[in-house]
């Protein structure tokens, strides 16, 4: 039970969900549930890139600011950003003002367009890297997997930036490519049921 806490409703949750107030609703309604929407997938890859070296709390607290600043993470719009947009974003105190990360996600928007042209959708591409259950250990005991390494390499080969294996593994956890809710967490079966009903994009 060391990876669990008791939630306000008396049911157990992953321990990390109790560390910050905003984490509980995110844990209960988003984290680990499968996503097939390209904008949401791209947004999460961007936010995980911004999180590199920072805490998820920092990013989650600023998520709405990021969405407003980056046109809702519409990669078709972001791909048209130029130097003036980089300067605009660097002046936005509501987001993480890191030139390298800002330029990386703008670059990744153009790469996302290319990926859609290649694979039909971002969803179809990333879900083709869904890990086999046997390559995963006990929930929340690893920060990478063979699948996250493979997806990271595939994205980097296509010119994506700030998408290392750890970043990609966190993306996979959050977007439901794996169910990493702790054993005994009330949301583990809920996420598992969502995964069973999910139709993988092709």
From TrEMBL:
Keywords annotated in UniProt: Glycosidase, Hydrolase, Metal-binding, Zinc
SUPFAM superfamilies (alphabetical): DNA-glycosylase (SSF48150)
Biological process according to GO: base-excision repair
Pfam assignment, any one: Adenine_glyco
Organism encoding this protein: Thalassovita autumnalis
UniProt binding sites for Zn(2+): 14, 27, 181, 185
Gene Ontology terms for molecular function: DNA-3-methyladenine glycosylase activity; metal ion binding
Name by which UniProt lists this protein: DNA-3-methyladenine glycosylase 1
Domain of life from the UniProt record: Bacteria
Enzyme Commission number: 3.2.2.20
